[in-house]
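Q: I'm a student working through a structural biology exercise. My instructor gave each of us a protein and asked us to get a predicted structure, then write a short paragraph describing it. Mine is Mitochondrial inner membrane protease ATP23. I'm not confident about reading structure output yet, so if you can add a plain explanation after the tokens, that would really help. Here is the sequence I was given:
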Amino acid sequence: YRLFPDRKKKPQSFLVRSLFTFHNKCQLMLRLTLETNPYARLLLEALKQSGCTVFNDRHFSCENCDGCVSGGFDAATSQIVLCQNNIRQQSHMNRVVTHELIHAFDHCRAHVDWFKNVKHLACSEIRAANLSGDCTLMNEIARFKFGLKGHHQTCVRDRAIRSILAVRKVSKEAAEKAVDEVFDACFNDLEPFGRIPHSKADAKRAYRDFQNRDRYNANL
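A: Happy to help. First, here is the predicted structure for Mitochondrial inner membrane protease ATP23. I'll explain a few features afterward.
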């Protein structure tokens, strides 16, 4: 909660929020992501089929956050926080929403102990980094990080460790140990995508496969 100070405040009036440019822009970008981004659309459908239907007004909140984070999943309220002061581009919003929806999906389908079991957190952070597009080639080039063999796995591991350190008061050694202990199992858990979506084209194919899988199952 220290990273999301608005979580402890009373919500502002609709008029104040409507006049606040960052809030308006955040809401518009969120709507576009939910309506058009294949990563987000697949996750929303998967959550619905798992019994956790997501509603825009209830499960997303655009707020001011600490400068080091772009978003977060509040397990206590099952709400995704989007940092309106740190998300300025649509592509960034797409990645943040996808990343946090993966946490929401994990929260829905499993008994995740977010606060007491660092391995649970590490697993979800590995999955989020692996499946959200955080580690695509273009994003890594934009960070001036280059590599060949095993670079995707290295990126996923590094970003999972960074995410744990950003939200939990644990040592770097403890974060690294937790990630390493669950890495293989969680890296290979590709639900609900069924593949690692390295691009929007991959995500669109995964979305089509997900829909067809459901149609196939319905006919069994």
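A: Here are two points you could use in your paragraph. The mean pLDDT is 86. The two ends are 46 Å apart (CA to CA). It's a good idea to check both against the output above yourself.
Q: Great, thank you!
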